[in-house]
Amino acid sequence: MAANTFDALAQAAFATSEAVFAINSPTSQPAQAIDRLADKYTVSNTFPAVTTVQANADPFHKVVESAARTRELTSVLTTSETLLPAIPHLFKAASQRSAVVVHLETQERDKNVPAYADLMAVRQTGFAILTSDNVQSSFDLGLVAQAAAVQTSTPFLNAVNTGSNNNKAGKQSNIVLDHQRVAPALSSEQDLAAHKERQAAVSEISLSSLYLTPKEAPEGKKPEGAVAAISGEEVYSKVEELLVALQKQTGRSYRPIEYQGPASPKTVIVSLAIGSSAIEQSLLQNHKDIGLVKIYLYRPWSERHFLEALPASVERIVVVEQAPAAQTAWTPLFLDVSASFHAADATWAGQIPKIVSARYRGTGADLTNADVTAALGSDKPSFVINPHYVAHPVVQTPLQDADVDTPYIQMLNQVFADRLNIENGIKTDSVWGSHQQSPEFGYGTLVTKVAARARFAGLVSKTVQDSALKISEPLRKALTQWHLNRSDSKLAQRHGKEAVELLRASQDGLVGPLAEILAQSAQFVKPSHWLVGADAWAYDIANSGVHHVISSDTDINLLILDTEPYTSRTQNPDNRKKDIGLYAMNYGSVFVASVAVYSSYSHVLHALIEADQFQGPSIVLAYLPRPDEENVSPITVLKETKLAVDTGYWPLYRWNPALEEKGEEPFRLDSERIKLDLQQFLERENHLSLIIQQNPDVARTLTHSLESEAKARDVALKKKAKDDFAKLMGGLGGPPVLILFGSDGSNAEGLAKRLVKGAKLRNLSARYAAMDDVSIEDLTLEKHVIFVLSTAGQGEFPVNAREFWKALSAATELAVSETKVAVFGLGDSHYWPREEDAIFYNRPSQELHAKLLELGANPLIDLGLGNDQDADSYETAWAVWEPLLWESLGCKPLEGVVEEPKKSADDAMKIDSNYLRGTIAEGLLDDTTGQLRAEADTKLTKFHGIYQQDDRDLREERKKQGLEKAFSFMVRVRVPGGVATPAQWLAMDSISDVTANGTLKLTTRQAFQFHGVLKRNLKKNIQLINKSLLDTIAACGDVNRNIMCNPNPHQSDLHKQVNDFATDLSAHLLPKTSAYREIWLDQKLVKGEAVVDHEPLYGATYLPRKFKIVVAVPPNNDVDVFAHDLGFIAITNKDGSLAGFNVTVGGGMGMTHGNKKTYPRLADIIGFCTPEQAIETGEKVMLVQRDFGDRMNRKHARLKYTIDDRGIEWFKTELQSRLPFQLEEPKPFKFLDNADRYGWTQGQDKMWHYCCYIENGRVKDTPAEPHKTGLREIAKMHQGEFRLTPNQHLIIANVTEQEKPKIQVLLEQYKLDKLNYSAAMLNSMACVAFPTCSLAMAESERYLPSLVQLLESTIEEVGLRDDAVTIRMTGCPNGCARPYVAEIAFVGKAFGAYNVYLGGGHHGERLNKLYKESLTEPEIVAELTPMIRRWAAERLEGEHFGDFVIRVGIIKATLSGKTFHDLS
Question: Distance between CA atoms of 175 and 908, rounded to whole angstroms?
């Protein structure tokens, strides 16, 4: 549909509507027209409520329900494909006298369903119908429909078709949208008020009756006040009156039924206006003696007005009408025209003309002059004038350039291959539009096919038992085995293949049944029969045909896709979709599974296989949410799926009755998160359900007693307890204080804890909590409340404060006149750089403070505002504000007491932990929560390779439901040098399925990483890792982390030497505590062991911060050697052997937005050491940092700051004093790139290596790319190694010449050979970020590929597809993907906004610099596109992008870490 058509319809709707519904489908997105509107206000200067709904979610139920409840003028923007399922609702809207106006475009769904068929199908629903075939008239008639609906209390359809794909004649370029002038002349506020009175008077029976159109009560028995139905003539007259008013305002003329042509024609064509433009044009040019009657108002049909419009001279009428889908004798308009001459209230003076029916295929816009001539020249009573018409293809809106059903259909194809038979039309809108073909569409065909195979089996059985037939013993055996195993797909195929080969071998002598068996040999293969449909089947299981399939006992499978997003799910219980799964399970003989491909690929795979193997009907309910967006992002689909699965809205389960026969449990719940909740819930819930079923009043009693009586008692008791507590504490010291914080990170919470400590020092009773953990009513019970509130996003409240603020901001009164409050805010005045963005600075705290005072609370002190731009960040303002706070609470300055002793809290935590033990073991035993409650334990577990996280996609929804966060753990596996055996790969693959989220992450530091490990699986996860001879100790924490090493597949001997060094150094620097083995591997302490446990290198406080070491092998710098604390650059002898290492120190990537005291830094080269000296050199460098690193400020605790604070010469002197040998001068070397070499390469030892592209290091299966399965199959037969690259990719290393062809086959089979990406994509890298990283401010891993794709079109256009550009993205400024050495870097600033950095060195030798802050996706593309074009046009020979932007002055080169923030 032309964009300007829906734009015009939307503008007409917005002119006077009080509510607007936009119904989106895969073929149309009318909601986008609303977004594009220039004028979003009504003529009364109000903004109508806008609701976007999906076509497959029974949208008209919501429309009609809303219109009846609110009595508002309600407009709908949609296409004709939504009309058929809406018929019951349309009848109801008409009976309710609702002012509903449906603005729609008719669509040709396929060659069998004409464009106007749906419109004709609803012509008897009681809706008035206006039609047009151009944009201007659709807008004009839309305004008329809006006014007529209100003034007659009659619902209207305003239908338009602007032409086919090949004929744009109906579209106009100069549309006059004069609604602001016209609409007030057509209707008024008084008209709307009168309508609401009329609809309010409609008898209640008409709103609730089972009759679609209420029965008329006998005369004299109508309810008092009931409103009489308006007649069709009254509606017609009102439309006619409004069209006259429209003409006066605009000069644009219409009549409900309009005649054009000569005064006394003998022949007249009658056509709906919606299909008349081409006819009108043909008559004007070639048939000026023929008249034309255009029907603008088709319903109500007025025989009298039709005959009045018809010239008396007419002798022949040709009714030109679109051919209906079914072959019927007469068409709707033809019947209306014919009946008009025999109507009782209409008279025709002359002889009744001859009336013929001329039908056409396609739309009226597709008609040609030849077609019109054919219509005029035929004497047949009924005929088709364009029989050779070819239907236009239906264009659907893609989901990432593919049909939304593709993931599941791809999986069906992968699993069943040639056996797959999908019987109904899956690749049309039959599944995703509103006209889902019912299961019965393909059921009959499938039953026939199943019966045919059963007859074939009977033929085989009869044949092998016929002793008169001469059958060889091998053939008889093969046929017998096939018959016995015909239901087993694999065995049936094997024995069938044997039988066919034997039959063909004796083909010349085959007669009778054997010849017939050979002729039907395709039946040997057991097909996998599937019907595929969508969620509309679930609204009426019986009538949709699902019931017939379930009860058939036939071996066929249904795949039913549910596309309704969780966030826009139907809330009305009267219209909820029926639970097909529960319905089917009640039969007992049906396999049922509920799956979600974006939640668990493997679960879908198992379900499909089990469904196919089950002998009987199978139903697989598949979730794939289709949000109301034009180009649906996979991230959105993923988030919707996670919400649905996590909340239990879409549980993952399998019900297999066949297991009962084996004595096994038939029901398996696969939703990991809700298993425990369900187990605890079922016992009490089942008992309660039985009680309520027996006595429904119990439910109401429970609700009343809990919500009424208990609530009042609770408030009274709570207030009394508070008062008593206050009196008690007042007697002991100062008044009690409630400290509330809102914080996405830890700063505000940290200040809240400091206030609690300060209160205790002053004998005050204090407690603290997140703002969302208290209700606003609690404020009325408190005497003193202190708020510490950080700023999120663009001046937004943090997640754990939003519900509190939502309630408080909506409150108009709150009894807080006796409550004293203080507010301290944390923000950054320069976080958003534009002047107009200054309003975001500390906005939450300012709004909170103002609202509290507005409600009557008393301020303890003025609002405090901490600013990250101050010398000591927010601490500067805090140092002034905090003493004033204590003074306002009546506390005298402390004498002789140090409030905040200058010591490292983290060091104290390490010392108290007893060498990293803490209370981790006890926390693991606490099964009442999914987290480790003790904050110290969450820090200590990092030393064990574990991060506690929660799923941020689910955070807000779980908070709404009163659930704790969706806690899980990330487990990082230490893999020195990134080298693993095939056995270890298989172990990691299995562990990810058994204990994690089913994916395996290859990190930027050559480690394995598991995500989504639940607490109950955490110990098992680590034990299995250790069983594979890997571990997680020191993969995180304030210790030396996993040591990286160039995978170097070319120099095989050298790689072994440097990798052995990396492994040895890693082992040398490991913590020596036995806590890891005790906690995770159940190795018990022996007597006295705790006393002697020690750390010879680290000591009890370990390092100030993390410490990272890498080993580089020139000419490749894939490890980014200068970006780490300590680096070793391998130097070779002339024969290629290892001579030693250049040593680099002081690199690091992390920084903080807005804090110029933090910055990335590249390492300095300080000397050369031999291989024998390297381990001791590494140890002593780390020990210098241990002894001199900043332990007070963790943001200043890395080695880079130690060196910059004291100078590189000081560092070299200090290091040299600890070494028993002198470091030599650095040796020459050269880096050429930092990328991976993809595809096959051969090393010096003639072994082969294949580097796979793994998008952002996430090894997973998708329907299109089952990489995880492929790598598993390769590992089963591979005899070499798996090497993780520093760029998150994977090398299948040391492949023999004999092994290579076999691996190549697997690479191709599982799409691991796909390397046809642009060089920009191949050189891109992202950190994990959302949804698990607590520090993430924006998407990264899930988003970067789509952003690069947006740039690729320009890159390819200018011929740079194969020119590498290093692109990196992180969700926060901490730098895990090493963004600050990239040529282009995107660093998350807020959700959807990134700081863009340019000018890094192509092989990691130069830092980049900030180009622009807080750019959104369109802004990023707009900025980079002209740069890329300029690079292509002006680059020097071989000049890299990072060098180019510096040379031409786009960005200034960064010469050192200290000048990183220098933009001038």
Answer: 74
pLDDT at residue 707, as a whole number? 44
Cα separations in angstroms, 922 against 669, 907, 937, 996, 1019: 29, 22, 10, 22, 13
Confidence band (pLDDT; 50, 70, 90) for 837? confident
Mean pLDDT computed over 145-171 = 76
What length does the chain have? Answer: 1464
**What is the distance between the alpha carbons of residues 431 and 187, in angstroms, rounded to a whole number?**
41
Report the half-sphere exposure of 607 (CA within 13 A, side-chain side): 30
SS3 702: helix
Identify the three-state secondary structure at position 758: helix
The 10s digit of each residue's pLDDT in 738-789 is: 999 998 767 898 899 999 989 988 888 899 999 988 999 989 989 999 999 9
The predicted pLDDT at position 300 comes to 95
Q: Quote the distance between the C-alpha of residue 1457 and its chain's center.
A: 38
- Residue 1060: both structure tokens together: 């052995």
- State which of 169-183, 237-251, 683-697 shows the largest mean pLDDT: 237-251
Contact assessment for residue 1382 and residue 1367, using Cβ atoms and an 8 Å cutoff? yes
Q: Which residues have C-beta within 8 Å of that of residue 757, sequence separation ≥ 6?
A: 899
Strand-pairing partners, residue 620, are 559, 593
Residue carrying structure tokens 């293809």? 393
Question: What single DSSP character describes residue 1318?
Answer: -
- Which residue in this structure is represented by tokens 């958003």? 832
Question: What are the residues whose beta carbons fall under 8 Å from the beta carbon of 775, sequence distance 6 or more?
Answer: 804, 807
In angstroms, the CA 1044 to CA 975 distance is: 9
Whether the bond into 300 is cis, omega within 30 of 0: yes
Return the structure tokens found at 96. Answer: 């309710």
Beta strands (DSSP E) in 1331-1454 are 1367-1370, 1384-1390, 1393-1398, 1409-1415
Mean pLDDT of the chain: 85
How many angstroms separate the CA atoms of 11 and 5, rounded?
10
How does DSSP classify residue 1001? E
Backbone angles phi, psi at 1313, to 5 degrees: -90, 5
CA atoms within 13 A on the CB side of 940: 28
Residues taking part in catalysis: 972, 1041, 1106, 1108, 1327, 1333, 1372, 1376
Q: What are 615's two structure tokens?
A: 């002998």
Residue with tokens 């009924």: 382
CA distance 604 to 414: 12
User: Using CA atoms, how far apart are residues 1323 and 1355, in angstroms rounded to an integer?
Assistant: 14
Contacts of 192 by beta carbon, 8 Å cutoff, 6+ apart: 18, 73, 99, 150
Residue closest to 153 by CA, chosen among 191, 120, 205: 191
Buried b (16+ CB within 10 A) or exposed e, 253-274: ebbbbbbebeeebebbbbbbbb
Residue 738, helix vs strand vs coil: strand
Q: Is the pLDDT confidence value at 1393 over 70?
A: yes
Long-range contacts at 200-204 (CB < 8 A, ≥ 24 apart): 200/71, 201/225, 201/226, 201/227, 202/96, 202/97, 202/226, 202/227
User: Quick check: pTM over 0.70?
Assistant: yes
**In Å, what is the CA distance from 1019 to each residue of 944, 986, 995, 1031, 1256?**
11, 19, 10, 12, 27
Q: How distant, in Å, are the alpha carbons of 83, 434, 569, 770, 951 from that of 564?
A: 19, 13, 6, 33, 22
Who's near 592: CB < 8 A, 6+ residues apart? Answer: 581, 584, 585, 618, 619, 620, 621, 653, 654, 655
Q: Are 470 and 506 in contact (CB under 8 A)?
A: no
Structure tokens at 197: 């009175």
Cβ(998)–Cβ(600) below 8 Å: yes
Strand residues in 544-616 grouped as ranges (E): 557-562, 591-596
| Cα distance between residue 484 and residue 677, in whole Å | 45
Q: What share of the chain is helix, strand, coil (3-state, %, to 5)?
A: 45, 15, 40
The angle at the Cα of 717, spanning 713 to 723, to the nearest 5 degrees, equals 150
